[in-house]
Specification:
The protein is of the alpha/beta class. It contains 13 helices and 12 strands. The longest helix has 16 residues, at 74-89.
Length: 356
Amino acid sequence: MIPKKNKIKRILVIKLQHHGDMLLITPVISSLTYHYPDAKIDVLLYQETSPMLENSAEISRIFSIDRMWKQLGTRKKLLYEWILLKTLRQQHYDLVINLADQWRSAFIARFTGAPIRLALNFPKRQNWKWRFCHTEIIPTDDHDSLHTVEQNLSILKPLQLNSIITKVTMSYSEDDLKWIMQTLSNYRFSERYVVVQPTSRWFFKCWDEKKMAQVITALQKDGHSIIITSGPDQKELEMVTTILSHCPDDKKNILSLAGKLTLPKLAALIDHAKLFIGVDSVPMHMAAALKTPCVALFGPSKLTFWKPWQSVGEVIWAGNYGNIPHPDDIRTCTNKRYLDLIPTDAVISAARKYIS
């Protein structure tokens, strides 16, 4: 049954996944905002991923699950879970969009009591229990050929919206931008710059440190200022240190902000860059969303699903330079660097092409 627009006043979108996944649900939120302008849209996510959406003007309220609850003991964990469930039920949602594939999300969708509860027909959830928790299950037969953004948007089919917004949105605050501008001013980085994000929490997605240093050195010699970023994890920081050790001693145009930025601050930094160079990671998706020219280095990831969406720039795939394993065969804990097949010259030439 297609809901009347004036009957949809409260919407809950559920996605319990990683940071990049949260960014790629923003077209769903934007499409709902456009077609139900009077509705309040809430999101349920994992607490650590909230920075991806916390500055969105389209979201009324963010509810979160703290994965640290399980360390507090069974009693406290159940208490927090129960408080969350009651709070969600009290919102009296008219529509729940469950983009997650966990049983937990299905139970929460059912518990809200919303008259319309949509979910995707994930292969591992094709049974009566999944159907029981939702009022309509949307087929996923064509998902193997769709980008993650398109997969997410397919959940809206039962609503028969006459147009879909496909733009991914990464938002940051004015304070985030002021912080970035002040920080760059302190380091006398007043001109536009190139952002290099060489790290990922999965090291099989990373490129050789010496090769990345060669790219940075080439662009520095071209007269460009370079800002290197990374997450706060110790392994990522060590990787940045290694890269810098292979750069020239004269680093007057090279600045490391590795481990020093929140994700919204990183977004503000990337938004004002003239180029982004990085591996398959959240910042790459942010650069694509912000329309910053992007050179993205990929290895054994599913390009169809995870390539930068509607981006300006170029994807450089290691598979074009040698044999790499199928993504499903990768052990994420491996120390192998499949991207090392990518030659330095390919990245330098792509960077020079897209620097504005």
